[in-house]
Design goal:
Oligomer: single chain
Shape: flat
Helix content: over 70%
Largest sheet: none
Distance between the termini: 20 Å
Number of helices: 14
Length: 256
Amino acid sequence: MSALGVYIGYSLVVQTFTFNLNIFYAMLAVFCISGASQAINDYFDYHIDKQKKSTRPLASGIISRKNGFIFPIALFTLGVVLASFLNNETFWMATFFSALSFLYSASMSKIKFVGNAIVSLSVGFTYIFGASVIGITPLVLMIALSAFLANWAREIIKDVEDAHTDKGHKLTLPIVLNEHQTHFIIFVLLLFSILAGYLPVLFAHANEYYAVLVTISNIVFILAGKQLVNKHASKAQSFMKKGMLVGLLAQLSLLV
């Protein structure tokens, strides 16, 4: 998904479906860094996973802790090296997000509401990373903003779903705040995500395909909010994934 975001960001700049060595390097760099971020988080969550998620590769002993550390470091390094082949902007973005992911997992992973923002910022920047191979445009920034907000809402909904397993181990918004306060923050993020989705229609002359698809995506987001109100966090999270998938299709339709 991260690699696809890079491709969309790049393609929105050139305004056509295309593929070349530069976009391949960019997609592979983000693919590696995204994978490394997941893997290093598992490494530092080893003791928690031993108690709560013992089937995971590290917690179950399928992979040694040593290899569980070497693997993400190798991926981070490969991602940054690939980004350095492109330009200074991609190199520094790759370096920054690699360092941010490592430091968060190493020292702040228990403060999960901070991680929600970091993960979502990383999602939004996949589009900007792809575009920066050539040059960032206002349209790419609009798409990145919408993706950032929608993903942030989804991350918090996932924490609502996992509140019973996170309690005593991590600080999430559903644990720090009460239900109404958490829901309010999610609804505000969803509202701004919906509004941001229409920015390309208002300011970038997006086509009618985009307008229709982004409206469908936003309706699904609203349904996710309804499920959350009804205390069905798992269904809400599922609706968010479906809405974001339709949102990806909307973004691709900008190239038609």
